[in-house]
Amino acid sequence: QLAGRWFLVGMASRCSYLAEHSHRLEATTVMVTVLDGKSLAISTFRKLDGMCWEIRQRYLPAQAPGRFLLKGRGYSGKMDVVVSEVDPTSFAILYYQKGQSISIKLYGRTSRLSDAIVDKFEQHIRAVGLSDDVTYYFPTYGEWHLVPEEQE
């Protein structure tokens, strides 16, 4: 259901780095590949200092369907990832939780989503106690939309 190309449309997080650098948000594209039928290979493409960067992660399957584990390096530990709601043709809402800290991301098959989907995302944000002042929407312009639909 999650395989293929997605655009990061919005994010809600109390991350101080995000708050301080929100004016520098860039269009972000994500390629999801299902490995061994269970884990997910995630390639995130974003611009930083004028260059396209690829960040690779692997989401390992957890105990229940739709739940994954993202292992951090060293002290950073692990993060729980939960697919909260998904329509494979249009959007996905994922929760990222590490300790008491939670973030929510909205992904779309296109970089612009309907108001109804954005409203749904904002309901999820309020449900976990986050607010508009920690919600960020990503720009829809940028070369990263040229990331191939299928990677070799």
**Structural class of the helix and strand makeup?**
mainly beta
Instruction: Give the percentage of residues in beta strands.
Output: over 45%
- Integer tally of domains: 1
Major β-sheet annotation: 8 strands, antiparallel, barrel
What gross morphology would you assign?
A: globular
Mean of the pLDDT scores?
88
Strand order of the largest sheet: 1-2-3-4-5-6-7-8
Based on DSSP secondary structure assignment, what is the total number of beta strands? 9
Instruction: Give the CATH architecture.
Output: Beta Barrel
- The SSE order reads EHEEEEEEEHE
CATH superfamily: Calycin beta-barrel core domain
Unreliable spans are none
- Per CATH, the class reads Mainly Beta
Rg over CA atoms: 15 Å
The helical percent reads: 10-25%
Number of discrete helical segments: 2
User: What is the CATH topology classification name?
Assistant: Lipocalin
Terminal CA distance reads 20 Å
